[in-house]
């Protein structure tokens, strides 16, 4: 059985509240889980201690049983010091998209056109 430690969403529309749960990876996001390990409230300030609460003993137990944390839960564990910080790279973050490239080319062509006319005179 492939185990995951992930977030299960609760709360009303536009007021999210998450439970950190240990579950079988085949279960739906908000479906059946084996154990609730903590809570996450993204509406609280980032420096608030109430924002992320975890029962670290149980989290360590599930990690020892082979459960894989999702990316967001892994970041919580890194912040708590229970896991080594992973190297993350988003190589395409600084690269503009196709439409932005076309706009830049058109802008450069328009800027070059008056300069060429002035040089020809």
From TrEMBL:
GO terms for cellular component: ribosome. Residues 82-109 have a biased composition (Basic and acidic residues). The keyword NADP does not apply. The keyword Ribonucleoprotein applies. Residues 110-121 have a biased composition (Low complexity). Residues 82-121 are annotated as: Disordered. Pfam families: Ribosomal_S16 (PF00886). It comes from the Bacteria. Keywords: Ribonucleoprotein, Ribosomal protein. InterPro entries: Ribosomal_bS16 (IPR000307). Belongs to the bacterial ribosomal protein bS16 family. HAMAP family: Ribosomal_bS16. This is Small ribosomal subunit protein bS16. It comes from Paracoccus marinaquae. The gene is rpsP.
């Amino acid at each position: 059985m492939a185990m995951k430690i992930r977030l299960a969403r609760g709360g009303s529309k536009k007021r999210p509240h998450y439970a950190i749960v240990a579950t079988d990876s085949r279960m739906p996001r908000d479906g059946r889980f084996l154990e609730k390990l903590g809570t996450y409230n993204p509406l609280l300030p980032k420096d608030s201690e109430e924002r992320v609460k975890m029962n670290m003993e149980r989290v360590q137990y599930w990690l020892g049983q082979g459960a894989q944390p999702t990316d967001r839960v892994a970041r919580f564990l890194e912040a708590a010091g229970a896991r080594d910080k992973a190297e993350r790279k988003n190589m395409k973050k600084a690269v503009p998209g196709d439409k932005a490239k076309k706009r830049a080319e058109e802008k450069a062509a328009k800027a070059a056109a008056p300069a060429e006319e002035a040089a020809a005179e």
